[in-house]
Structure formats: structure tokens, C-alpha cells
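Before relying on records like the one below, remember that each one covers exactly one chain. Contacts with other chains, cofactors or solvent are not represented anywhere in the record.
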Amino acid sequence: MGKNRSRGFRRLEENDLARLTFLGASGEVTGSSYLLETRAERVLFDCGMCQGEVHSKGHNQRPFPFDAGGLDRVVLTHAHVDHSGLLPKLVRDGFRGKIHATTPSGELLGVLLRDSAHIHEQDTKYENRLRQRRGKPLIEPLYDVADAESALGKLVLHPFDAPVELSEHMRLRFVRAGHILGAASVECWIRNEGVERKVVFSGDLGRKHEPLLRPPEPPSEADLVLMESTYGDRDHKKLDDTVEELAQALREATKDGGNVLIPVFAVGRAQEILHYIAELEHKKCIPELPVFLDSPMAIRATELYRKYADCFGLTLAGARCEAREPRRLEFCRTPDESMALNSRRGIVILSSSGMCEGGRILHHLRHNLWRSSTDVVIVGFQARGTLGRALVEGARSVRIFGEPVAVAAKVHTLGGFSAHAGQTELIEWVRAMASDGARIVLVHGEAEKRAVLAAKIEERLGVQAWQPLRGDQVLLQKSGAGVSFVGAQRALAR
């Protein structure tokens, strides 16, 4: 390896087949990124943006801890920005290889990365206007739409379950992970000198009984497993109970004539909530309500869900599930259509972002939070430091666009709609691999939650799970134990 290609990392020893370095989502939920190095190539698995945490903006702006031009390729588990959002920055910094993903993920990336780039451009223009007035130097966006287009031009798309020969020494396969359209767990085999080791990257794992997606398909064997731990500390409520809670919230809202605001993730959660509202209407559990999907990205994602209906799960009778939509559903594509909702009452608004950190939902919260007739229905994970987390924790006043807004609205938190597997589902997903002798590494989870999951895994499966920090490494070796862990400080010192 050249000098830049090994920047920040020690060289492989004679017995080392490959080295895996944890560059993100290690003790936190976002920013997934893992670098796999062999003697012949360097492959980045996910290239996610940090979101929600206090340090997120600074971390996203830092240089990558490796030479982007020295990477051979990128492999993506799925399209969510916390797994893909720094791809345009990677290209801007010199990455010239290909980006491998599933076919549906590739289409979603076209929606998400273009939107993310547009937001960075607009936020930078606003910031630079302030800087000009204050006599401060102007800044550049993290990346722009041209960078996003360059990243999208590097996509190589694959079907589920098909073997992919990346090189002479590495092959992989995408298997279904649930979670969102196109999401995959990635099986990766590394071989050299007659020795082969297998690494499994779980990506984000979905629920078993999500109607719009087939359930996760756990591999049966591996040497090393990286498994997410977002909800490692608990199981979710029963889905039927959660749907009834949604129905109850909607029924209450119709009585007082206020608006119902549902912050949603544009990909996955928006389509799921629309489906359940339609199901409740169909069963006469709620009246037919005016429902507005106010998110251009969610609208485009909804159209992709319609296109890839073959990814949907099966009913108990074995038929393919059909995505339903509310009878009075309207799409708000333009800013004017969105602003027109400010004068409406007795309506349901689904808008992104899911953690209330940006997008049109902020405008709706500013116009409605102070009204006691408003109902806010939280249907997804809220990271620490986000506006959504503050609402869940009972804040009586929040700041939106720099101004204080009183919270008089009723806030309903419905945990059962999570697109992430709960504790028991995670343990069952990894059980066969643990029985086969795989070493388990917990990633993509807050420190306290993955600590609880690690204890449960040891209790139920009889194996210890490692909880890496950013910069920690795993060595895949030709002989001996086959897998060994190296702490960050020791790794960088050697």
C-alpha cells in the first residue's frame, strides 16, 4: 500500500487475512461506516451521515480517516441517509470506484441523495447570507447536487440472493433485511491462500410481520457478525395494539377538530402509516379523514413502493400483501400546497423529517404545537438531541427556527411501528450464526442499549458480544482463533 492508502492504520501482519475498522455507528445510532482492508483492496461498507447528536455536523465535515481515492469500492446495506449520506462527499474527495447496492436501494438513493444535496445547498446559501452581513468568510456546502449525481453514476445494482464476485479474493451476497424497500444484510467472503472467512453486515434489521416488506432472512453461518442494536434494550409493543393506539389518537383528534401531525421518515414509515390509516378506514375503525402527505421525497418513495410491490410480505393465507392508501389522500408537492395547510383544521398531515430536525414538519409544528386541539403522533425512533426526542420527553416549550414555541398539543408516542427489530427479534436473527461459532459485534445503537443487548445475548446464547468504539478494529486471521479484536489506541499505536 502507498503512504496515503494506509493513512491512520497499521499494516497487515503475515497471519492477517483482513482488517475491519469501525468508523461510525459505534456507540451511537447514525453514521454507519466500516472499512474492510485486505492485502489487495479496500472496501467501505456503508458511508453514512451522522444525524441528531450534538457532534454530528462537525463529524460530517471532518476529512475521512483514509484516502478516498485509495478505496476500491463501496457496498451499501440500504439507502437511508445515516448509511449512505456521505457518498457525495466521498466522491468529492476523490473516490473513483463503484458503489454496490440492491436494485430498489439504487432507486431510493436517487431520491434521498438528491434531496440531501439540495438541503445542503440551501442551508449553505442561508448561512452565507448571515456570514456576509457579519463580515465572516463564506463556507462551502458539505456537497452539492453535482456531487450527488456523480455518486449515483457509480452505482452497480444487484438482485437479492445472487452471488457477486467483487474480485479474485472477495465475493458477497445481498439478503433481505426488511426495514425499508431494498434493505439488505450483506454476506461477504474473503479468501486468500486457501483460507476463507465470512463477515455478515446486518444493516438495519426490520420486523418479522411488517406487511409491506418480506421479513429479514438470517444467514446460518459466519466467522464475524456486525449486528445493529438500535432497540437492543427492549421488545416493541404488539403491532395490533399499536395500530389500535393510532386509531384512538385519530378518533380523539376528530372530536376536538384539531390537526393531527405525524412526523415520518420519508422512506418506509410514511408508506407504513398510510397503509394502516387506510386499513383502519376499511375496517370502519375510524372515519374517512382528509390525509395529506406533505413531503416530495415521501411522495416519490411511495411511488417506488408501488413499483416494487414484489418486495412486499405475504398474508397468512399466502397471498402477496397489498399496500392500501387512505381514500381522501392528497399529495402536497409544492411549497404553496404545503403552506395552504396552515389554514386547515381537522386534517391529518404526514410530513418529514421523522425526528423533526428539518423539512416541512417544522413549519407545521410551529403553526400547531401551541394549540391544545393539536395531536402529535410520534411513530419512530427519536435520537438524543432531536426536537422529536424533546417532544417525547414532555418538553413544554421548544425552539423552532430560533423562536420559542409553547407545547400545548397532546403528544402520543407509538413505539410498535418501529422499522427496527426489537431485542428478541435481534437475538433470534443471530442465533444460528452464534451457534455456528460466529463472533458477534454490536453496532448502530446507543451505548446503554447495546450493553443491555450484549448481556441478553450472553444470557440466552452463551456468547459474549463485543461493543466497539470508533476506531476499534477486528482482524480476520488465517490461523488460530480466526478473529481477534484490537482497541483503537493500540491499533493506531502499532
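The chain has 14 helices and 23 strands.
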